[in-house]
Amino acid sequence: MTPPLDPADEIARLRRWLRAWTWVAIAGGVLTLWGWFGRPVSRAQVSTTSTPSTKSISWHQTGEWHGSTSRTTEDFSVSSSYWKVIWSTRPGDMGAMNFAVTLHDAAGRLAPSGVANTIGAGDDSSFFRSPGRFYFDIMALQPYSIRIVESR
Asked: What are phi and psi of 92, to 5 degrees?
């Protein structure tokens, strides 16, 4: 028969176990975040090519999405090595809510920077320097519009 355990020893053993697993969880979280935000969409995305002067660029719209709820878009193709995403949003019936958009390549890799993240009304654009196939993850509870325009 085993001798009874001292409650103080048992509590100390549980604390050591919990402390060790807390560090494992923190390390796993850091590595996961590094994987999400640390990899570029493609090698062309991080190239050192110069940006064309915006005065000499002709823009051509190649995609557009409207809505007021979250969704993942269909894949879309971009043939230009310089293009932008133009978005706008405004509060809807429920008032000012969150609107966030992330860009992924067709393999599911997250772009290094988000496209949009705001609460309430807003509009802006983001520039990208890589052709390919992409899709958006849109998180929204208010009306929005997203357009893709490519340089020519």
From this structure: -110, -150
The 3-state DSSP composition of the chain as helix, strand, coil percent (nearest 5) reads 25, 40, 35
How far is residue 12's CA from residue 26's CA, in Å, rounded to a whole number?
21
How far is the C-alpha of 36 from the C-alpha of 137, rounded, in Å? 14
Structure tokens at 10: 């048992």
pLDDT tens profile 2-41: 667 677 777 777 777 667 667 766 766 655 555 555 444 4
The closest of 134, 126, 49, 133 to 83, measured between CA atoms, is 126
User: Which residue do the tokens 């390549």 mark?
Assistant: 105
Phi-psi region of 6 (alpha: psi -120 to 50; beta: other; left: phi over 0): beta
What pTM was estimated for this model as a whole? 0.64
pLDDT at 90: 97
Where in the chain are the domains?
7-38, 43-49+57-151
Q: What are phi and psi of 16, to 5 degrees?
A: -60, -45
Q: Which fold has domain 43-49+57-151?
A: Jelly Rolls (2.60.120)
Q: Give the mean pLDDT of 78-106.
A: 96
